[in-house]
Amino acid sequence: MRSFLKVLMKNSLPILSTIVFALLLLSATTAMAAPSDQSDVRAAVQHIFDELKNGHYEALYDSLPASARTRISRERLVQGLQRSQNAFQLQRIEIGSVSVSGNLAVVDTTMFAHIAKPFDGDGKLVVQQYLIREDGKWKVATGDTETINRFLKSNPGFARRFPIKKPRALITQNGKWIEIPLGQRRS
Length: 187
Description:
Number of domains: 1
Largest sheet: 6 strands, antiparallel
CATH topology: Nuclear Transport Factor 2, Chain: A
Number of strands: 6
Oligomer: single chain
Mean pLDDT: 77
Shape: globular
Low-confidence stretches: 1-34
């Protein structure tokens, strides 16, 4: 019996080690692809936030998907963002979970800011960011419901797993976060 095991191990070892090596290589390649995409998406979200925070509004235009750029001019985007400059000062962003499927990504984020108007205090916006990869670069599609809906329609599995969540706005009051209904003025 021992000689049979020796022969089996002697002849099987190269095959077994090749299979193990191939499986390790495959799993390592798969593991590397996902974090790379996730890292790229995280970097894109952070870069876009930094551009917005630093007032580099012209550069933000290039971060929009082509379909969004056909509906708004660079000048109109810049003017709109400049008008909001005095209302709040962005402070930081927390980037949560990132999910990538092909050329579509969704990222949970929380953006913190000091809000000057209509009240003086700290606030945060909890929002799901959608990004689309165009020409090898991640473009932010959040707020562009037409583009998001088109991509979600063509990716129903992704849409079921990551349905659009309504953004939430909160402010601090007496040391607690209080939710403010979006689209309504606070009395």
